[in-house]
Amino acid sequence: MSDLLDSVIEAHGGRERFNSFATLTAKLEQGGILWALKGKTDVLAHANVRVDLREERVSHWPFAPTSRHSVFTPQRVTIEEEDGSITEDLSEPRASFAGFEMETHWSDAQLAYFAGYTMWTYLISPFLLGRPGVVAREIESWEEAGENWHRLRVEFPDSIATHSKVQDFYFDDKGLLRRHDYEVEIQGNNAASRYLFEPVEVQGITLYSKMRIVPNTPSNIPLTEPYIVTIDLSDYRFE
Fold it and tell me: Which of 66, 68, 104, 73 is nearest to 90 (CA)?
């Protein structure tokens, strides 16, 4: 484990405090061009999310215009009614995206898969980068916004569902996460950069209130528009 990873985890509240919690819930307001391209404009525009901090398991609700919720794991996704009855069941969900491009529509279960692994990756980083099987190494720093950002190149094991096997995380001199690069394998390997804003302290852990995802370019200079996804988060709660 790198010294940089140790320092950024400490800057976000430390492993011991993070590991004292089991789940994190939040309220989501989401926008951007992605949802219309997938035929899911309003389904999770105003929703709630709960992520398990110890295993890759996530739930979103409601799936508008219904009161249904999702149960995501890397191996299986279900869409369920309030009483637990299953309306959609998708096993080995990643295989279902074979041949998909940016404009290919999703089912609700496929949306739940994407939203599930995305929010699990987003909400538990940088702590995720220290999990067994995840390899993080420091690479050359990056100049952006008049600042020098430290970078970790991270390789994820096949057991973790996420955007792509290799991703880059950028941290400022305070150890805060500022940018996150990846390719979205399940929609044609399009390159994207996630920017994080408005850090907040929640029960001793640093989280982020706003995220903006834009296309990245071969020169590693992201475009300023369009926003692929916008995410505003509030009402964070650890349990």
Answer: 73
